[in-house]
Amino acid sequence: MAQAEITFAELLDVDALVAACDLVAKEHPNGVLDARASLLPILKKASAEGREAARLQLFADGSGLNCANRISWIQDQLITVIFRFASTHVHPREIEGISVAAVGGYGRGTLAPGSDIDLLFLMPQKVTPKMHKAVEFLLYLLWDIGFKVGHATRTVDECIRLSKADMTIRTAILETRYVCGNEALVSELQQRFDQEVTTNTAAEFIAAKLAERDERHRKAGDSRYLVEPNVKEGKGGLRDLQTLFWIAKYNYHVRDTSELVRLGVLSKQEWRLFQKADDFLWAVRCHMHYLTGKPEERLHFDIQPEIAKNFDYHSRPGLSAVERFMKHYFLVAKDVGDLTRIFAAALEEQQTKEAPGIGGMIGRFANRPRKIAGTSEFIDDRGRIALADPGVLKRDPVSIMRLFHVADLNSLEFHPDALKAVTRSLSLIDNAFRENEEANRLFLSILTSRRDPGFMLRRMNEAGVLGRFLPEFRKIVSMMQFNMYHHYTVDEHLIRTVEVLSDIENGRADEIHPLANKIIKDIEDREALYVAALLHDIAKGRLEDHSVAGARVARKLCPRLGLSAKQTEMVAWLIDQHLLMSMVAQTRDLHDRKTTTDFAEKVQSLERLRMLLVLTVCDIRAVGPGVWNGWKGQLLRTLYYETELLLSGGFSQVSRKERAKHAVQQLTEALSGWSQKDQRIYTKLHYEPYLLSVPLEDQVRHAHFIRQTDKSGQVLATMVRTHQFHAITEITVLSPDHPRLLSIIAGACAAAGANIADAQIFTTSDGRALDTILINREFPIDEDEMRRAATIGKMIEDVLSGRKRLPEVIATRSKGKKKNKTFPVQPDVRISNALSNKFTVVEVECLDRVGFLAEITAVLSDLSLDIHSARITTFGEKIIDTFYVTDLVGQKITSENRQANISNRLKSVLVDQPDELRDKMPSGIIAPPLQRSSTVQKKARA
């Protein structure tokens, strides 16, 4: 892969370019516009060839900084050639006094392939209109070539005045670099800037840059572990390194950050780390720009595999090539975070000492260092824990863990020197340290703290302590999972899980998680719960199931942390089963008694049930923003209450028939204001499954809805209700029954942009279908959501009545949407008769796409399968849809040949053949020939 490095001269033949431009001048001695038009293809060709050479060299040597330097050099030469042309042939007298300087990133001598070019045209004190014409000539050529040019035209006096008033302009001028023209003006600007602007203003500049950094982090997601990071603006990205450079240059008046080693600000090792991180991030950014053909700064999923390939990453057992590349990225981002945090905090500390009265962010550290009660190793230095003397950690390595414990007990932040000392002392955390009883006791205390354990764990992770103390944890530091479901790296996800657990325990999440908030008070072993929260995904990235491997890790690690044998087994069980409750709640019919009995057999005790519920809630919440919603909470609560009843011996022993009869009596009483005839008609509409699974409140609502529809003479109707807390909107459809009814409803929802979360499907005794479709809520305000739901309901009615054709509306929705080929989701079909006593359960798993549910239910109808309930679950780019089915006479599918046929037909759909299927979808079901026999339905539903 390595090739001999090319020289700058080989990127662009400047002499030949100048000669070509001079020839154009001779050919057009009096025509400026003609000359410009003739120059354009010459300059475009030179730019394209030079940048292509830089791209090829990026693949040859892999250096991002070299690539950025080469592109910057090419840009310098083009601007210089154009300037020379203007000064020689177009505006010879006017342009001589002007200086062209690079500012911003370009001023540092680095340019990404798609970056803007920031220029400062420095003018002499006396500016003439013709000087502006000369600048315009240069700018128009640059724009015509295709460059995005940010520019300012100012005198030195104006630059000084504006930079005093505007921090953005001040930062830009800080990086001024001479390109061509009157060099004396640039030298004057740099000299006066140092004397008149930077002198005695370092504290102001540092405070502004740190505040700007914090706001930038907030906008970019406030985590360096987002799995689609912003390479330029995100936490741990290039802008963080640039902030460090700006502050160093402003505060220490250095031209190159390597001088910080001489000044003692960074060690040689830290400087090398800075260089490596800078080079790597520039390489990623340059590859992104070249690959997308635009200034793309976010490392999106769809380009990650290609960039991993460009970096020559290969898959290894447990980790794909892209996951290995992204782990490298996040480790670099972590290094950047360490460098910028320590460096920026150290400078802030320096400025505090020099100007203690500055106030604001720094003013709160005005008190002198004081002793911390109960320890002689640490001191409280203006709200930050610091070492009492530099030799503390070396004398007693366990003081590394004690530092975090004392900080937690006293709610202290960390002095930058203390963190630097910890980072430089990581080699002290050896096997003896890991086996030390006090170190493990202190760590368990930090983990189970009733204050803010997530904050301390994150600080420990950033300092490298967590990975050194728990070698198993070190393996998953900065590890990403290449899917759209997980928003963070594995280590960040685990720490966030602990944070959510702490919030629930401290009552900070009672509105979001009422049940978890209530039952956590009854959990006897909070230590085991916190350890399980931290370790539940610790075995990610291994070939075997991470739950099984994680349980094995727990059995080894928990005794070291001081947990008893009973606690260890509880932690191991929780890790082994940490996905169980989530999967059962989201992919199984919770009204099917077999679901509850099977789940209860695995859980076995109320304590396990409580702990598993809380851990499941924390795990889902920690996946990322928007993953948790009230509907998932409702599913978990339903499963919890049903299982609690069974485990406590309170499950009803009354027969289904008796319970159904009682349900009819309750519905009759609830409709006491109706005539006896209406009571009799509308209570006899429903079969056992409906009476036993639908709450009485909903049965009453449905009865009013059906009666009103009948009175109005409607053949079909829809009813809408929103559930704000559950983040779900409910659409109930009353329609003549039809084998493809669910398929048509699902297609209509897809066409309207609604994501279905669940479907309850019932048939009435008079041959109609009463289907309730639950869709994910989109708007926070009920009025807006009701309008959206009404639109979806109207779409369903239009499709069912044939006013709109389903293939056409789905095709319209799909138009312009790219098929997601980024993620390797293996299509799968599973058929089981063991998950339900009455139904065959068909589970399909594949990559999500518009209209998929409509397609799959259409095939199930073609196969003469009656769908009794459906559970629709989305995990990022992957969907798992579960259907409880019977044949048309209500029996399970027991024939192996028929099961194989079902599986094969469904797999053909999973491979993505939507167009063919949509063409077969009916336009509507209201026309009599398409109506299904009510007799068949009665037998099927009985």
The level of helicity is: 55-70%
Note the overall shape.
globular
Beta strand count? 16
The N- to C-terminal Cα distance equals 70 Å
Main-sheet strand order equals 9-10-12-11-15-16-14-13
Low-confidence stretches: 356-366, 927-942
Figure out the total of helices: 44
- Using only CA atoms, what is the Rg? 34 Å
Average pLDDT works out at 85
Describe this structure in words.
With 942 residues, the protein is α+β, with helices and mostly antiparallel strands. Among the domains are: 192 residues, Beta Polymerase, domain 2 (2-Layer Sandwich); 158 residues, Four Helix Bundle (Hemerythrin (Met), subunit A); 228 residues, no CATH class. It contains 44 helices and 16 strands. It has an eight-stranded antiparallel sheet, with helices on both faces. Strands 3-2-1-4 form a four-stranded mixed sheet, with helices on both faces. A four-stranded mixed sheet has the order 5-6-7-8. Strand 9 and strand 10 form a beta hairpin. Belongs to the GlnD family. It comes from Peteryoungia desertarenae. It catalyses: [protein-PII]-L-tyrosine + UTP = [protein-PII]-uridylyl-L-tyrosine + diphosphate; [protein-PII]-uridylyl-L-tyrosine + H2O = [protein-PII]-L-tyrosine + UMP + H(+).
Task: Describe, in short, the structure shown.
This protein has 44 helices and 16 strands.
Helices and strands, with pairings:
Layout: H1 8-11, H2 14-27, H3 32-61, H4 64-90, E1 99-102, H5 104-107, E2 117-123, H6 129-145, E3 149-155, H7 156-165, H8 167-174, E4 177-181, H9 183-198, H10 202-220, H11 238-252, H12 259-262, H13 268-292, H14 304-310, H15 321-354, H16 360-363, E5 370-371, E6 378-381, E7 384-387, H17 392-395, H18 399-409, E8 413-414, H19 416-423, H20 431-435, H21 437-447, H22 453-463, H23 465-469, H24 471-474, H25 490-505, H26 514-519, H27 526-535, H28 546-561, H29 565-576, H30 580-587, H31 593-603, H32 606-621, H33 630-647, H34 656-670, H35 676-683, H36 688-693, H37 696-712, E9 717-723, E10 728-736, H38 741-751, E11 756-763, E12 768-776, H39 782-801, H40 806-814, E13 828-832, E14 840-847, H41 852-862, E15 866-875, E16 878-886, H42 896-910, H43 914-920, H44 934-941
Parallel strand pairs: 2-3, 7-8
Antiparallel strand pairs: 1-2, 1-4, 5-6, 6-7, 9-10, 10-12, 11-12, 11-15, 13-14, 14-16, 15-16
Helix pairs in contact: 2-3, 2-4, 3-4, 3-6, 4-6, 4-13, 7-8, 7-9, 10-11, 10-15, 11-15, 13-15, 14-15, 15-19, 18-21, 18-22, 22-25, 25-27, 25-32, 27-29, 28-29, 30-33, 31-33, 32-33, 38-39, 38-40, 38-41, 40-43, 41-42
